Amino acid sequence: MVDSSTITLFSDILKGVGRNPITGKKKGSIKIHTMINAMEDVPCMIKFPSAATHDHIFLKDLDLKKGSYVVFDKGYVDYQQYHEWTLNDFYFVSRQKDNARYTSLEEFDIPDKINDGVLKDEKIELLVSLIIKLIMIVIQRKAQRKWAYSNMMYVIRHHLMTYIDLFKFLKNPEDK
């Protein structure tokens, strides 16, 4: 999982982002990019560029193993990087930008009595199975008890709307 935070500094040491304030005194900012291994819950990579550096630059620094999954927000959009990852069997999950392209499968009529805020109703193609697979891999690796993938999927789907300590449950389902 990859994300970033911006910290405003007390002086203009590093280039900040945004407009200059009316006072003309702009403080610098530093950005913290962090990659966390979902299996370990601790950072495995941290970088500190100036806040003016675009987020997608961080993706080029990632040292990924074949078959790795990376999850990040839409600030990291870099279609060239996505293409390279696809060619090298790296997988990624990100939010879609407003101007992103997608495949429209079907468009539906909007009834007149529906709120005017509804502009379009359509069925689009999204690859959510990749997200589910990533979650299941994390759960399967964290579970101490060995589960057949299909059994684990059934249990999770069955308990999707109930509160349970999932990892405790997967370790020992009989323990209440």
Write the layout of secondary structure elements.
Blueprint: E1 2-8, E2 29-37, E3 42-47, E4 69-72, H1 79-87, E5 91-94, E6 103-108, E7 121-125, H2 128-142, H3 149-158, H4 166-171
Parallel strand pairs: 4-5
Antiparallel strand pairs: 1-2, 2-3, 6-7
Shape: extended
Structural category is: alpha+beta
Number-wise, the strands total: 7
The share of residues in extended strands comes to 15-25%
Strand arrangement in the largest pleated sheet: 1-2-3
Largest pleated sheet:
3 strands, antiparallel
Number of discrete helical segments: 4
- The amount of helix comes to 10-25%
Q: What's the N-to-C terminus distance?
A: 32 Å
CA gyration radius, whole angstroms: 21 Å
Ranges with pLDDT <50 over ≥5 residues? none
Question: What series of H and E elements makes up the topology?
Answer: EEEEHEEEHHH
Mean pLDDT: 77
